[in-house]
TrEMBL record:
This is Uncharacterized protein. It comes from Dyadobacter subterraneus.
Length: 108
């Protein structure tokens, strides 16, 4: 499956057994926990079997942040770039902190 989106995507994943290709390179997603993708990036997934996958997707359009400082600077963040094709490795404390933020967003 191959697609592009108009959205920014932040993924926090567990038990992902399929490969994701971001542009021309495979995302190093096996051991990492958190990954980022920008609008317009070509994303390829080599399987649709996600039965055991768990985690979060935070998906948002630039329009939601364009009037804020983040909207003006988000393109400067290197982790949304094609050049970065590794998922972030988080400590348990960092993972809990990120998951807490995502739960607060879900609650709102």
């Amino acid at each position: 499956m191959r697609f592009t989106t108009d959205f920014y995507i932040i993924m926090l994943k567990r038990n992902v057994i399929f490969k994701i290709k971001d542009g021309q390179n495979y995302y190093d997603f096996d051991e990492g926990l958190m990954a980022f993708m920008a609008p317009g990036q070509m994303i390829s997934v080599d399987s649709t079997d996600v039965n055991d996958a768990t985690g979060w997707l935070l998906v948002f359009h630039l329009d939601i942040i364009h009037n804020y400082h983040l909207g003006k600077t988000i393109k400067e963040f290197g982790f949304f770039s094609y050049a970065v094709n590794e998922a972030l490795h988080l400590s348990d404390k960092e993972e809990n902190r990120v998951e807490g933020v995502l739960k607060n967003i879900q609650h709102e």
